[in-house]
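Let's sit down with a protein and look at its sequence and fold side by side. Go ahead whenever you are ready, and we will take it from there.
>
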Amino acid sequence: MLPKFSAAAVAATLSLAATAAMAGAGDYAFEPVNPEMKKGDDVTLAVRLTNKQTGKPVSDAVIFKTRVDMAPDGMAEMESAVAPLPSKEPGVYAFKTDLPMAGRYQVTLSAKVQGEPDTVTGKVIVKATK
């Protein structure tokens, strides 16, 4: 004999399955840890990756592509090399880069998040001051 399920239980189960299926790369956000820093060489630039649905940091992401340039100030060709640094806090990803002049810099990141089939991408703007 097959078990009987109430219509409400079936609807709740389908709703949960639909919510899980709709989760995607857009459910994550990068943000600067310090949106403003002094210009210079070997600057530590840190970004936080969070799950927008839970507000929790994502500490198991693999950042596989980074770029730092001055695109916000119309100088996308002004690109700086980026080197990863060890993480000191869950969900925070740090990088060493050069910010040679005052202005706005765009940090473009691509990451793989555990359990997420799509690549998570984001752009963060930071300001370098004198």
The mean pLDDT is 87. DSSP finds one helix and nine strands in the chain. The longest helix spans residues 7-22. Residues 48 and 92 are 4 Å apart (CA to CA).
